[in-house]
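A note from the maintainers: we've had questions about how concatenated examples are separated. There is no special marker in the raw files; a new sequence line simply starts the next protein. For clarity in this README we add a label.
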Amino acid sequence: ISVWPYPATICADGRSRTQITAQVFDYYDNPVGAGVTVTFVTDFGHFLGMGNTYVTTTQEGGYAFATLVSDTQPRTVTVLANTENLRQGYCYAFCIECRQIYIPLILRGR
């Protein structure tokens, strides 16, 4: 299984999101079809509408998707994806401290 986040870096604010994509391959390294169950597990943050585990099935091309919501602490998050036949892969997402920058807007008369 190939697994990757996009974007890989998000704010550690408990609201920012990243899409985790897994592509599942068979024994001969060909993408599987639709309907293969994939379980995503994270050590920090949570999956949108769920907890630290999210179960879904693949679409055509062997792709499965999950939305990870950031943790509130800056840290490296590990996401594991596995299938029923014990194939697995993992990726890292980075929750970083983000600072708000305010830039004043000055409007001049026209």
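[label: protein 2]
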Amino acid sequence: AYTASGTWRHLAPEHAFDGVTQRDWDYWNSGGHPPHWIEVDLQKGYAVAQIKLVVAQWPREPSETVHEVWVSDKPILGDPSDATLAHTFSRTTRDQPSRVTVSRRRQAGR
């Protein structure tokens, strides 16, 4: 199941997890300025070792952004109080893919 704090037009949260990164119409758009969140419930436990982050932002100029990766054994739905912060990265982003290692050890979550 996919949920998000917001969606713009047809750019729904499931697009963030479909593996397609090369089409202009196949990504998630929150529909507004930060902060926003997106979540995928994998329905059972997995060990998460790596996430590929593909940033699409407007304006397209590079800017400083902060992204947090949270894991949990139950849905978070925007309230991470029972979740574990697996990784925080803060850096200059632009419209380009970047692979982000979640942590040095695998994080359990669903």
